[in-house]
Design a protein that fits this description.
Shape: globular
Radius of gyration: 21 Å
Strand content: under 5%
Largest sheet: none
Length: 156
């Protein structure tokens, strides 16, 4: 009689352990799986795309346009820097992805917001967007990357 209970207890513990491991793995994938700043191939691809498409506005060195927090004469904000001096790292990876793919207004649910930043859906693949964002994140100092990872963990 004691053996079936013993086997059930072991089976239950294994199932619980596997479930916890699966949830832990899912959390890691969702939290840190979107951007890949440690993957040199992805970062290199992102740099090529950034140089071709993004640097015109955001600067060859991620520095953005001058006076980026003050609207231009047309009412649109200049392109912000993506280096540590800007606010890019203040946004979750998912929001950065959504802003790049769908545009700022749609990603941030701002109905009447106008932005000079185009949506890249249909222009860049999801993997290309991730590569560009990974390149940007790879340029940040380790402490800023850690803060961004914590932000991602808190928003997932």
């Amino acid at each position: 009689m004691g053996k079936p209970i013993h086997y059930l207890a072991i089976a239950g513990a294994l199932i619980a352990g596997l479930g916890a491991a699966a949830l832990y793995g899912m959390k890691l994938d969702n939290t840190f799986g979107l951007l890949q700043p440690e993957n040199t191939d992805v970062v290199a691809q992102g740099k090529v795309i950034y140089d071709e498409i993004c640097a015109t506005c955001h600067g060859a060195n991620l520095e953005g346009e001058a006076d980026w927090q003050t609207p231009k004469a047309d009412g649109l904000l200049p392109a912000p820097p993506h280096d540590v001096s800007g606010h890019t790292w203040h946004h979750s990876s998912q929001l950065l992805f959504d802003m790049t793919k769908y545009g700022v207004a749609k990603a941030a649910n701002l109905d009447n917001y106008q932005s000079a930043m185009p949506a890249y859906e249909g222009v860049l693949t999801d993997d290309e967007i991730i590569a560009v964002l990974s390149f940007i994140k790879a340029s940040w100092p380790e402490d800023v990357r850690a803060r961004h990872d914590a932000l991602d963990a808190a928003t997932n």
